[in-house]
Every structure is written in structure tokens, then in C-alpha cells.
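Sequence only, no structure available. Ideas?
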Amino acid sequence: MKLYFHKDACSLTVRILLHELGLTAEYESVDLKSKKTASGADYKTINPKGNVPALILDDGKMLTENVAIQFYLAEKHPNSKLIPAAHSDARYCTIEWLSFVATDVHKSFVPFFAPNVPEDAKAGIFTTILRGKFSAVNERLAHNRYLSGNEFTSPDAYLFVVTRWLPAASLSLQEWPHLQRFMDEMNQRPAVKKALAEEE
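Reply:
I predicted one. C-alpha cells follow.
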């Protein structure tokens, strides 16, 4: 497999999960502004969407979009329980939180990385929206070790990655003690340590 990534982008989620599964892969960085890969290729000819992650599978097919790749990895390795078994309550809970991280939390960061959004707008309505999303996550983690319960699942890796973006919104983990505990614990996972070291 080969993962096209950008440092500290949501593609870090896939790298973490690959390490959680003990899978080997090739990694190539992408400059998201120029759309050039580290080897000089035009990334748009590889992935016309132009975003990361893009995972080239062993059969040469390409899979894009974080949630789709997470499902692929989890269902190819069901014993990992990254996404619990079909028809189980745990599965629906995991999908619920995976959806929330992807569509509510992740997308709420878009204005903070967009160069044409005025600073006062970022500091106003967009910060308020983002604070609300993380407050919901903090409340969940007040009663659960991880998003889906007491076992690590796919959305936990995703939450870890997007939470690392809080400084872009001038927000601090100090507002959310249960999220702080979660991040401290995640930072100690071997797969997370390995992924972060590689991207450095």
C-alpha cells in the first residue's frame, strides 16, 4: 500500500491506523498548495480531488476520503475492532462518533485554514461553533475512556488528529479536561508515537 499524505493533515489518522494494524506502507507527502508530490508528480493526476489522504491499495486501486479508508482498513482486519462487528450496538455508536468527528469537528476547522476568512470572523462565530463541538466531545469523554466506550476505535485516531489543530483556532485543551486526559493517553500509544515521529 501507499499513502499520500500532508504533514499534520487528516491523513495522519490513516497513518496511525496503519500502525495500529501493524501494516507496512509506502508514504509520499503532498504539497497541498502546489499539488505536487515529494517525487515531483502532479498529484491531481493521481487523485483528481487534490486532497489527502489517498491510499493506493495492494491491487493498485485507489481509495480516498478518510472515513472510507478507515472503514476499508477496519473491515479488512475485523479482529482489530477498529469498527465493531455489523449489527452490533457498538458499531452504530462508533459510526455515530466517526461521523461527528468527520462532518462536525473536522469541517468546523475549515475557516481557520482558509486565507480569505477575516480574522474577526474566525475569532467570533467560527470559534464559538468549534468550542461547542469540542464541549460535546469533552462531555462524552467525561463518561467514557474513548469515544465509543472503553475500547479504542477508529474515530479516536481521527479525534486525536483534529484536536491537534486547536492552536489554529486559538483554543486550548485547558478548556476541556476530559479531552486533555484523552490526548495524554493517545500520545502514549505506540502507533501514535510512531506516526508522529515519522511525520517529523
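The domain at 2-80+192-199 is CATH 3.40.30.10 (Glutaredoxin).
Hope that gets you unstuck.
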